[in-house]
Amino acid sequence: MATVVELLSLLLVSLLWGCTNPFLKRGTDGLEKVTETNRVSQLLAEIKFLFLNIKYLIPFLLNQSGSLIYYYTLSTSELSLVVPVANSLTFLCTLLTGKLLGEEFGGKQAVVGMFLTMAGITLCVISSIDNQDTGKRDMAQPVH
Q1: So which residues are the signal peptide here (predicted)?
Q2: Which pick of 4, 51, 76, 91 has the fewest CB atoms within 10 Å?
Q3: How far apart are CA 30 and CA 44, in angstroms?
Q4: How far are the Cα atoms of 70, 95, 141 from residue 65, in angstroms, in the given order?
Q5: Angstrom distance (rounded) from CA 117 to CA 88
C-alpha cells in the first residue's frame, strides 16, 4: 500500500513541477525590460517584478509546494525510485503542458523520447516493487 502512496506522491510532484514550468516561463515575460543602475538595485527590481506579478507568483507557489511534497517523499521512499521517476515525469508534464499552451513540441524526437522515458519509469517502478516483494518473502519465516 505504501508503494501506491509513494507513486501518487511522485505523480503529484511531477504535475506540480511540470505543469507550472511553462507558466513560470510565461510569467517572466517583461523581466528583461526591468533595468536599474547597479547590480543590487537590478536584483531588487527583478525580485519586485516577479513577486508582484500574479502570472508568475501563483505558478511559483504551486511549484514550491511540489518541492515540499518531493522532500517529504525523499524522506519516506527509496531514493533510487524517487529521483528518476519525479524528474522524468516532470519532463513529460512540462512538454505536454507546453504543447497545450502552444509551444513547440520537438517533433518525432520528442515523442520517441517520451516513450523511452515512460519505459524507463516503468522499469524503475517494476524493479522497486519486485525488490519490495522479494524482501518480504526472504524475511518471512515459516511458523513451526
Answers
A1: 1-18
A2: 4
A3: 15
A4: 9, 20, 42
A5: 6
Number of domains into which the chain is organized: 1
Domain carrying residue 78 = 4-140
Q: How confident is the model at residue 142 (pLDDT cuts 50, 70, 90)?
A: very low
Mean pLDDT confidence for 43-60: 96
Q: Is the pLDDT of residue 141 over 60?
A: no
Residue pair 76/67 in contact (Cβ under 8 Å)? The answer is: no
Interval 92-113: pLDDT, tens: 899 889 989 998 877 788 888 8
Buried b (16+ CB within 10 A) or exposed e, 60-79: bebbeebeebbeebeeebbe
* 8 Å CB contact between 40 and 116: no
